[in-house]
Design a protein that fits this description.
8 strands, two-stranded antiparallel sheet, six-stranded mixed sheet, about 30% strand, mainly beta, single chain, Virus Head Decoration Protein, Chain: A
Length: about 120
């Protein structure tokens, strides 16, 4: 007699990233970086390339511009990759710098930019 094995499926909720219409663009990232998906990035003034957003910087990286769509690996040299450039993203899933501890500070990092972070419902 054959007895079927029971399988147990763990139910997991995956947070929604996009909360409304979004637009993506492709931009150049500087070499020697590994940046995870959903990381805010900024453009360094000296070379006009993207780096992780750093609110303590004073070289252009202090102004968040975009959020990475996928992991970005530029260990082999400069590389282009897609970023979210406009639209509504879930504030809870973004990989914010540790220095930004409030939702207000996170939203202000993108002041005057195309991305907004409404409170998820």
């Amino acid at each position: 007699m054959y007895t079927a094995a029971k399988s147990v499926v763990k139910e997991e909720t995956i947070p929604q990233v996009v909360l409304g219409p979004v637009r993506t663009a492709v931009h150049l990232f500087a070499a020697a970086q590994t940046i995870p998906a959903l990381t805010p990035v900024a453009k360094k003034t000296a070379d006009n390339k993207l780096y992780p957003f750093d609110p303590a910087a004073s070289d252009g990286r202090e102004q968040a511009l975009f959020v990475t769509v996928h992991d970005v690996d530029t260990t082999a040299g400069d590389a282009s990759a897609p970023v979210y450039s406009d639209g509504e993203l879930n504030i809870e899933v973004i990989r914010w710098p540790a220095a930004l501890t409030t939702d207000e500070a996170k939203r202000m990092a993108f002041a005057s930019q195309g991305l907004i972070f409404p409170t998820p419902v």
